[in-house]
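Input.
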Amino acid sequence: MTFTSWQFSVFAAIVFAAYYLPPLRAFQVQWLVVASLFFYGYGQPELLALLAVAVFGTHSFLLLALRNRKIWLPVGIAFNLALLAFFKYKLLFIDPAYPSLVSFAPLDFLLKLPLPIGISFFVFHNISLLVDLTRQKTTPPALADVFLYIIFFPQLVSGPITRAEMFMLQIQPKYFEHIPFVEAARWILTGFFFKLYVANNLNEMTSYMSFPLYETLQIQDRWLLVFLYSYQIYADFFGYSAIAIGLGLLFGYRLPINFNLPYVSASFSEFWTRWHISLSTWLRTYLYVPLGGNRHGPMRTYLNLMIVMGLGGLWHGAGLSYLAWGLMHGLLLVLERPLLSRLASIEFAAFRVARMTVVFVCVSMLWIFFKLPDFQHALNYLTGMFVPSTNPSPTKLFYNLALLYSLPVMIQHLGLRRLVEGRLRWAEPYLYGSMAALMYLEAGPETSFIYFQF
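Output.
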């Protein structure tokens, strides 16, 4: 069940309608937990047992760690990382299509289970819960509260990753009159527009980046598709995050902002304060800082950056392409770090635009390793961006449509939203009305959200 399906619309409407009924006010948390379990189990009910093991296990280790943090916190973290490693990285070593992997039937069943949707996100929530609550030495939370934090359905599958200390404070009775309807509607409408109109339409074009279709492309087409995929992955993931934030507001929970115009970044470190903010914040808080951060000299800082970005790449998938993507981002962060203070002192507008262009081009080219998880295919595509094609009948791409579907991302990054919220406030209803019309009349073919695979 995806946010863009009619089944989800019916589901969300029923959950929302019952949520604020006075007789259910004392059971709002339990109602959301039941709804979230239904949402997660819809289509894959066999994965509910895994989710239950993750939540019950984390809650048990939390209770133990509140008594003895030194011993049980590492054990609880290891338990969650083991779950992630088993289900996400087992495919590096086994073939699920093999008739019988082992003679022990229960283990054979586990080995053949598909990658659980959202496992990367709820494992990170589990670790945040263990670290934050044991650091504060709070009263043990109720099991229902733990369930809600970990499996709250708007953020369950693809985030945003919410820190436990931020979410748990919001668990209290909610009232219909407190709903920020206008703000929620803006987020939801914007999210659907970027997913249905921008991302889904661009997906039709960027499908030519896949093997073997990319072998029919000319040099200029390969370059075009790299930038189109850059817009697509942003629109797709920003769209999901925006819908999640809007849904959260409808149920009285404020989720963190996940994107802040990342493609206007003038440095790679700035990019990572604007792109997938909840993930970069999690990595900084729970990995980079514990490793020592920048407190032990330049060389240790560079090593920590490479470790964090390499693991961040592997978090996205068990493949050499994802590792290479993370390590190359780490390398760019290392290379620019000694220059940041000098670059910041140059305040010419043209120089900042040049820096933004360099960052955007480098980030876009690295997305090739996301689009093509097979490392050799990614290298072949990259090579073809500089070597002329000998294909006698190259694929014809429609550049006018590429511009049309990319335009919303460009306009957003140029600051139209701030302009509309300021001097052009009167035009806001027309803007959202146009977005609603376009996403209804010109929606691209239905595709799943890109980050569902992570």
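The chain has a mean pLDDT of 88.
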